[in-house]
Amino acid sequence: MFRHLKEDISSVFHRDPAARNFVEVLTCYPGLHALLLHRISHWFWGHRLKWLARFLSTIARWFTGIEIHPGAQIGNRFFIDHGMGVVIGETAIIGDDVTLYQGVTLGGTSWNKGKRHPTLNDGVVVGAGAKILGSFEVGKGAKIGSNAVVTKEVPAEATVVGIPGRIITQQDRANVQVKKDMAEKFGAYGLSPDMPDPVAKSMGVMLDHMHAVDRKLECVTQKLREMDASYEDVDLPELKDEDFSAAIESLNEPSEADSKAT
């Protein structure tokens, strides 16, 4: 028990730069309190003192806002950051060096007895608000994005985002970088306070389409060069920042009809 406590406290220092000293971590981190009480209640659960185990886990939920069923199996150096709203079901299995953020649910999708909650292997990180539902494995070192809803097995080292959760591929990563570059250049992907959401969404769809067309044109021109060495490529017209800025500003300005209405 004390060995586990020492490792659990050390894991807080490794994964939370706000942690300053031993006393602060021991007294002010609800995730650590919930984990310590779970280790005790889990011992009671394993020794058939199930009512006492459930009662202790309920006390822990009252004080920390974190609900961990005493039947859940948790490995070493487990860390819950902030922690409010975290729910871990009875048959969940959590490996070593796993990190959960606030609002995470490790839940089941069946009322049948038996294994119905997920297994998180070593080194998994689950972002705030994510829901992992069902009896399947999340591979070693995988990362689950904030607010993702995962209902299928996740391979090791994968990154999952979205609802329903999908695995981010290398192509997806490239597209994300392209969108970031476009946002820096045109300011269309970023949702600024003075830009209505429908405009940003429309501009985003347009930029996606433009990028796909550019890729296809590049493939076509490459084939033409291979077929005809004398082929001369034509430069595309430059997209200027001010053109996009003017269009966005005109969309955000109230129309004449709106002005009359006010």
What does this structure look like?
The chain is α/β, with parallel strands linked by helices and 262 residues long. The protein folds into 2 domains: 2-167, UDP N-Acetylglucosamine Acyltransferase, domain 1; 170-261, no CATH class. Helices cover 45% and strands 13% of the residues. The chain contains 8 helices and 15 strands. The strands form 3 sheets. Strands 3-6-9-12-14-15 form a 6-stranded mixed sheet. A 5-stranded parallel sheet has the order 1-4-7-10-13. Strands 2-5-8-11 form a 4-stranded parallel sheet, with no helix packed on it. The longest helix has 31 residues, at 197-227. It is elongated.
Which terms would index this structure?
single chain, 262 residues, alpha/beta, UDP N-Acetylglucosamine Acyltransferase, domain 1, 2 domains, six-stranded mixed β-sheet, five-stranded parallel β-sheet, 8 helices, 15 strands, 45% helix, elongated, disordered C terminus
When the domains are counted, the total is: 2
Question: Which fold name corresponds to the CATH topology of the largest domain?
Answer: UDP N-Acetylglucosamine Acyltransferase, domain 1
Structural class: alpha/beta
- The CATH architecture classification of the largest domain is 3 Solenoid
Strand content: 5-15%
The succession of helices and strands, N to C, reads HHHHEEEEEEEEEEEEEEEHHHH
How are strands sequenced across the largest beta sheet? 3-6-9-12-14-15
| Share in helix | 40-55%
What is the CATH first-level class name of the largest domain?
Answer: Mainly Beta
Quaternary class = single chain
Unreliable stretches = 182-197, 257-262
End-to-end Cα distance, whole Å, is 69 Å
Taking all residues together, what is the mean pLDDT? Answer: 77
Q: Radius of gyration, rounded? A: 26 Å
